């Protein structure tokens, strides 16, 4: 029997991202700017199919062809004729919606595979109008994905490198040692891994690696992107461009069209550099575009696009493509602006010595946005970008809170709230939204925005006084730092993302105790204390829920944020004195259950001290590039075992038994009619989500799908782990 965690439930929550009112307030020029940026983002978002699994593009095209010929309502009659029950047809719609929402058949949050919860998928395809019109093409699509569509072999269950899971960032014959060697090579050439994939072959007894850059063109500007062949550490590396070429061209074309409607020179400069980046595969150009983006303060239409977050690269260095377009929510942005103004007062409150904080706080643009378009594998509640350390440390960054995501993502029904006491459930429902708003603001601005990295540049210049800076944990002068082209991601690699999310979450918990912070968000007195309580309660409950995202077989975590929250739970349990209690029990249904409680009287004392101590350790290891110490600390708290006072492996089974599926979001489309842009919105159902994707690529659907199939078929031999097409 298949474990239910690999199915999406028929009653999965689906919410529409409401941006209609915000869009109406845009001028005709702003609407055109938003439209072309959205088109660029949606085309680029298709890259994620190619970054997720070998079968994802085939499944996507199969579904697009089914629904382009017959809308969900029409296909229902076909399903009935093929012998599917109404529950099975709903399972089919939910699976299709899930594939679109995650841009692949692995969950964007947790990296677990999901499969169709129906045995008659093939019968539905064979009875469809799409099959009747093109039986050869539909059968070929089915044959290319049908086995992997349902496969739950151990390696297929989750994303990972080598034997630990599936990845298309690396060819199937790559392992951790290959990733480490490639990172050393990239560092030696001052090349970023963000927009790359790695393919390995054997030639004349040597390991030969192809580093493939994402770009529209395959030749041109070789010097700038360091294309060519190099001998390195008894291996051969070939740097080539042209990955995802057709999609990168579509992104660039639409960015070029958007440029005509840019509101400022900063926006024009930003778009020109992005175009150069996606055309030639240059991360340096994207960094230049990001510099223009940082300078573009308070735009009406906000956007960012590129290879951004490295959560799903098993090695933690390669970026998944994402692009968003959003409209400013002025009321909420005013609160964040006040938080930014208070940042220089709040930063000294953080529990590390002044030398470990940035020399100058670079006030970022911090806005609340209503999402119009978010293309990629998932939609976060907040973002702190760019992710380039050199820019963040010395030039600045932007913070974004996605207001219409927050409004619907965390609405919870009382009967579905697990592991809390009844009295806590009512408080949780009332204060979860306001408390999470505070946490997101602190997490993004003063979490990701704080802390100094000690760096020695290629000329030997230090950004600190090594005769003065001491480790507050030992009292000794610091003895390690980042050198040359080393970055946070390249040094801390596999733990970098989760470690940094943990640091930011801890900053949020620590500073939400500050009355000034709570006042900024409109919370005073007893109300403020409720916000603090629910914020901390939510964090420890999230730490327990995080066990869903741990894989015991490989002893690995599949989601950076949830690993971070589990670590925080462990720290607060360790603090003792009754701060947090976690007990196993039996539910009213007779099945295993658990209860987590938080003593609010101890938050400002025991809890604050625990966060203070742990946060300081996290920052010291990060600042000093102490990978060994940082990894030892983080992996100790990340360990999921049955030893000690809590059997976390058994608790994991309880969490899986009672888990609720993560919501999916339906997004609108912008439609160009003459010189007018209209907004097309869809109902918050699986059918509505499907319809939004079917109508998203109508003008060039067949050509686009043919190009996707060509891109995936070229690399098909590379995923087996036996041979690669580049041989």
From TrEMBL:
One BP term from GO: proteolysis
Highest taxon above the source species: Eukaryota
Protein family according to the UniProt entry: Belongs to the peptidase M49 family.
Any Pfam family matching the protein: Peptidase_M49
Signal peptide: none
InterPro entries membership: Dipeptidyl-peptase3, Peptidase_M49
GO molecular function: aminopeptidase activity; dipeptidyl-peptidase activity; metalloexopeptidase activity; zinc ion binding
Gene that specifies this protein: DPP3
Residues holding Zn(2+): 443, 448, 501
EC nos: 3.4.14.4
Name by which UniProt lists this protein: Dipeptidyl peptidase 3
UniProt organism field: Electrophorus electricus
